[in-house]
């Protein structure tokens, strides 16, 4: 089952910043600067964290992984936006 | 702690070079855990990932980076050093990872994350293990092989050995006499005494008195490593299991009892490999839920079907209900799909119109002229994401898959049994019976006023299918039943027929009902309902073909449908009972919920095709159906239709291997 995670990071080095941004684009939606919303299974989370751990400097950088609960039963008010609208979409497939 | 396959990536490719002779030590570990798991992984070559295997892979990242070198044993020993797969010279081997890459050593990995850094590992805090290779020579020179010295060495362990212990990572050694090849995560050499250290991701077993212990599979694996080391001329009496989660070491002394268990396990592995018979599943074992291959093994489902006399009361839902990933469909003509990092980028005229994460998809489907970059194809195939090709209108060309055949044994069995007329007829009868029953169920559920005669007829034909004498008469029965069924099909369309939607659709032009259906026609379909049915069958064929390929069956050799070049006969076989349940039901719901309206169709001469928008809506409806949960009548758990296709295909494979007596065709109640 997927859960929603908010992943935020504070990276001191421009190169690592780009790397971590690129890495997280593979796992979730870019909400704001340094903030991603990711819907991950347990296995995904493990992989994602491992990828980040390889990039981050463990003495200087920090990433936070915040668990927002199961994706299936997410409530409408889980994330409330002030200003530009925020919406979560769910479809059984991607059609382009 | 159950961790069936915690370092799956350590199956060295070189281990496969001589499958007749060498068994990987890892596989013996699996055998002790569960013989069936050993068979599925080592004999059939199947594998699946789970959170445990992924955790194991991550844990082994650094261990597997090792040079694979270990100083040769004492000159007096007869066997010489066996080079690792990368064949690097041993003695002068520099540590390749640290100087070249971005200096990882400063990135200390805290224990809370993925700490496999040896700096905090108990037992070698004073040594830099990466610089110790040259010491190997001097160490072994002054260290003559007398057993008392080993004991002495232990007594002064704390003071001197730390500085003298030599570490080698990822050492592959084999033993001809045992017929075993082992990959040592870490070998700690002190003189000629080598202690293998195996990395495990979980926590150690705890005995009743609180002492730490190891499970049998792990102990046997250590024993094999010790034996292989001995065979290569090293002295080795015990191994160590290093548990990453708790960062604890557990010593595994190799005693006679363990040696006996190890030898009998090797013998059992040989026996299973040569028998060609899959061992029965474990009985209600606590090991099954965490086993990564449980979806392939289907332990309880197989047992329920195999022991018809006394079925197990409750089948535990061990298979996850849904695949968490979703299919992607691309139908905009002239689109170009490339990959950037882990993102798929769909571009139209150079502009990115959509980005989709590779991690989120389990299929790529292309309708018409859409370009896919080689990099995307490679990534997709590498991740076992099949790519389906259709024409713009939805005619199904085929599927690109990876290397495919994972389980050649079942495919061989498929070819053998396809020549067996009785067997083919048996399967075919069940399939046609199931299909007619499902058609009948659909009528009963969805028809406004189901016709009693039709229902009775369908029931009669279904029963007659079970007694059919030949494939030809089955074909006849299927045909008659289809005529009855499609004769009543229009009664399931519940859209208010009189309302004109004002579009330029086919039907409204003549002030006819929005959707009407007289009979099934195709090539080309001549009304909107037939157009949708054709597209739905096309999509379902694709999904059945993917399921068949995934299980390792040849999609082109069927039992009911006869061989015809380019015809995916087995996929069509598998699909029969699902036609009403998935394809026709999607068409009905798409019409009845007005996801698709008459505006979505374009008339071209006598044929009718869907517009691009209509197709997109229909694809959504189809996937919604595939994603919806249905209760399996035999196992009483709920799974999605997509998962159900896979389960049914795996059961067919079990039928082919002779493990179960009857193929249970899926029928809704």
Describe the structure.
The complex is a heterodimer of chains A (96) and B (669). Chain A is globular. By secondary structure, chain A is α+β, with helices and mostly antiparallel strands. Chain A contains two helices and five strands, in the order E-H-E-E-H-E-E. Chain A has a single domain, classed as Alpha-Beta Plaits (2-Layer Sandwich). In chain A, strands 2-3-1-4 form a four-stranded antiparallel β-sheet, covered by helices on one side. In chain A, helix 1 packs antiparallel against helix 2. Chain A has helices at residues 14-25, 42-55, and strands spanning 3-10, 29-32, 35-40, 62-70, 94-95. Chain B has 669 residues and is an alpha/beta fold. Chain B folds into three domains: 19-78 and 164-288, Lambda Exonuclease, Chain A (Alpha-Beta Complex), CATH 3.90.320; 331-400, CRISPR-associated endonuclease Cas1, N-terminal domain (Ribosomal Protein L15, Chain: K, domain 2), CATH 3.100.10.20; 408-496 and 512-657, Four Helix Bundle (Hemerythrin (Met), subunit A). In chain B, 40% of the residues lie in helices and 15% in strands. Chain B has 21 helices and 20 strands. In chain B, the strands form six sheets. In chain B, strands 1, 2, 3, 4, 7 and 8 form a six-stranded mixed β-sheet that branches. A four-stranded mixed β-sheet of chain B has the order 9-13-15-16. A four-stranded mixed β-sheet of chain B has the order 12-11-10-14. In chain B, helix 6 (147-155) crosses helix 7 (157-164) and helix 15 (452-466) packs antiparallel against helix 16. The longest helix of chain B is centred in the middle third of the chain and has 26 residues, at 421-446. Chain B is elongated, with a radius of gyration of 30 Å. Mean pLDDT of chain B is 76; it is low at 1-19, 75-163 and 497-513. Chains A and B meet through helix 1, helix 2 and strand 5 of A and helix 3, strand 9, strand 12 and helix 20 of B. Chain B: It is an enzyme of class 3 (hydrolase). Chain B: Residues 136-145 have a biased composition (Acidic residues). Chain B: Mn(2+) binds at residues 478, 561, 576. Chain B: Keywords: Antiviral defense, DNA-binding, Endonuclease, Hydrolase, Magnesium, Manganese, Metal-binding, Nuclease. Chain B: Its EC number is 3.1.-.-. Chain A: Belongs to the CRISPR-associated endoribonuclease Cas2 protein family.
């Amino acid at each position: 089952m997927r859960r929603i995670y908010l992943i935020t990071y504070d990276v001191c080095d421009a190169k690592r910043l780009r790397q971590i941004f690129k890495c997280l684009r593979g796992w979730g939606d870019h909400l704001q600067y340094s903030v991603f919303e990711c819907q991950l299974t347990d296995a995904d989370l493990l992989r994602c964290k491992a990828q980040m751990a390889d990039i981050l400097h463990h003495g200087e950088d920090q990433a936070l992984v915040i668990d927002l609960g199961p994706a299936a039963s997410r409530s409408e008010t889980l994330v409330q936006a002030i200003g530009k609208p925020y919406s979560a979409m769910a479809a059984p497939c991607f059609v382009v | 702690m159950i961790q069936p396959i915690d370092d799956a990536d350590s199956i060295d490719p070189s281990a496969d070079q001589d499958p007749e002779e060498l068994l990987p030590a890892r596989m013996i570990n699996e055998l002790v855990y569960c013989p069936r798991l050993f068979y599925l992984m080592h004999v059939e070559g199947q594998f699946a990932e789970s959170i445990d295997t992924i955790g194991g892979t991550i844990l082994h990242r650094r261990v597997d980076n090792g040079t694979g070198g270990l100083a040769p044993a004492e000159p007096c020993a007869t066997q010489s050093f066996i080079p690792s797969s990368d064949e690097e010279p041993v003695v002068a081997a520099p540590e390749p990872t640290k100087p070249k890459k971005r200096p990882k050593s400063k990135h200390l990995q805290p224990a809370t994350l993925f700490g496999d850094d040896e700096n905090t590992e108990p037992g070698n805090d004073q040594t830099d293990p990466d610089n110790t290779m040259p010491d190997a020579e001097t160490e072994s020179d002054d260290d003559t092989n007398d057993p008392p010295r080993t004991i002495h060495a232990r007594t002064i362990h704390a003071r001197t050995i730390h500085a003298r212990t030599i570490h080698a990572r990822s050492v592959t050694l084999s033993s001809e006499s045992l017929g075993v090849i082992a990959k040592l995560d870490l070998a700690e050499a002190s003189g000629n005494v080598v202690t293998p250290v195996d990395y495990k991701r979980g926590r150690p077993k705890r005995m009743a008195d609180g002492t730490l212990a190891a499970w049998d599979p792990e102990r046997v694996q250590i024993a094999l490593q010790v034996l292989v080391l001995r065979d290569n001329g090293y002295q080795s009496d015990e191994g160590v299991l290093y548990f990453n989660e708790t960062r604890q070491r557990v010593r595994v002394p190799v005693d006679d009892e363990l040696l006996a268990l190890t030898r009998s396990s090797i013998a059992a592995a040989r026996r299973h490999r040569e028998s060609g018979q899959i061992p029965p599943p474990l009985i209600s074992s606590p090991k099954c839920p965490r086993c990564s291959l449980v979806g392939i093994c289907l332990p309880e489902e197989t047992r329920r079907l195999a022991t018809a006399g006394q079925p197990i009361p409750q089948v535990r839902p061990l298979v996850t209900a849904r695949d968490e990933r979703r299919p992607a469909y691309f139908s905009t003509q002239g689109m170009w799909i490339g990959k950037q990092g882990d993102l798929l980028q769909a571009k139209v005229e150079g502009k990115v119109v959509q980005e989709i994460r590779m991690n989120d998809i389990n299929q790529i489907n292309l309708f018409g002229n859409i370009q896919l970059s080689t990099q995307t194809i490679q990534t997709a195939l590498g991740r076992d994401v099949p790519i389906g090709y259709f024409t713009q209108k939805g005619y199904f060309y085929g599927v690109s898959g990876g290397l495919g055949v994972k389980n050649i044994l079942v495919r061989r069995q498929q070819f053998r049994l396809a020549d067996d007329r009785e067997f083919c007829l048996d399967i075919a009868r069940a399939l046609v019976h199931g299909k007619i029953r499902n058609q009948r169920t659909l009528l009963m559920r969805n028809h406004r006023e189901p016709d009693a005669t039709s229902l009775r007829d369908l029931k009669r034909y279904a029963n007659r299918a079970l007694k059919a004498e030949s494939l030809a008469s089955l074909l006849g029965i299927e045909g008659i039943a289809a005529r009855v069924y499609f004769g009543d099909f229009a009664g399931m369309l519940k859209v208010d027929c009189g309302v004109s939607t004002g579009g330029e659709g086919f039907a409204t032009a003549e002030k006819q009902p929005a959707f009407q259906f007289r009979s099934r026609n195709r090539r080309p379909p001549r009304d909107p309902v037939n157009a949708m049915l054709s597209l739905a069958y096309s999509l379902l064929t694709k999904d059945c073909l993917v399921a068949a390929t995934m299980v390792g069956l040849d999609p082109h050799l069927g039992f009911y449908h006869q061989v015809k070049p380019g015809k995916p006969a087995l996929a069509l076989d598998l699909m029969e009972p699902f036609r009403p349940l998935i394809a026709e039901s999607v068409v009905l719901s798409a019409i009845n919920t007005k996801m698709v309206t008459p505006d979505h169709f374009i008339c071209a001469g006598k044929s009718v095709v869907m517009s691009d928008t209509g197709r997109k809506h229909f694809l959504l409806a189809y996937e919604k159906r595939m994603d919806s949960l249905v209760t399996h009548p035999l196992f009483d758990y709920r799974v999605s239709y997509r998962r159900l296709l896979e389960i049914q295909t795996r059961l067919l494979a079990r039928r082919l291997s002779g493990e179960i007596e009857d193929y249970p065709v899926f029928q809704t109640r």
